[in-house]
């Protein structure tokens, strides 16, 4: 089970983007990286193609999972995430600070 999922609000805890917050747009599971909206903007040079124009485009580059921390939707603080089994036997994520269950981002 992944501790950070697409749709979660996270804060960057190290690197040049330290302190920036955003929503996880994409989760690259094989590479242990996440793409966050509006964070880690880099300039990519695009070659001219049939339907697009050449030039420099700003895109969001992926960050390693160890550089981000989840913002708990219950206590609104950055915290570590734990995994435990609920009464029905399914795994669920919980905040290590307030001990509350973290709901799925798409279940809002």
Total beta strands:
11
Number of helices: 0
Q: Strand order of the main beta sheet, please?
A: 6-3-2-1-7-8
Q: Output the radius of gyration.
A: 17 Å
Assigned CATH architecture: Roll
Describe this structure in words.
The protein is an all-beta fold. The protein has one domain: SH3 type barrels. The chain has strands at residues 9-12, 21-28, 33-36, 41-46, 55-60, 63-64, 68-71, 78-79, 81-85, 91-95, 101-102. The radius of gyration is 17 Å and the shape is elongated.
In short:
The protein is mainly β and 108 residues long.
Map the helices and strands.
Elements: E1 9-12, E2 21-28, E3 33-36, E4 41-46, E5 55-60, E6 63-64, E7 68-71, E8 78-79, E9 81-85, E10 91-95, E11 101-102
Antiparallel strand pairs: 1-2, 1-7, 2-3, 3-6, 4-5, 7-8, 9-10, 10-11
Label this structure with key terms.
108 residues; mainly beta; SH3 type barrels; six-stranded antiparallel sheet; three-stranded antiparallel sheet; 11 strands; 0% helix; elongated
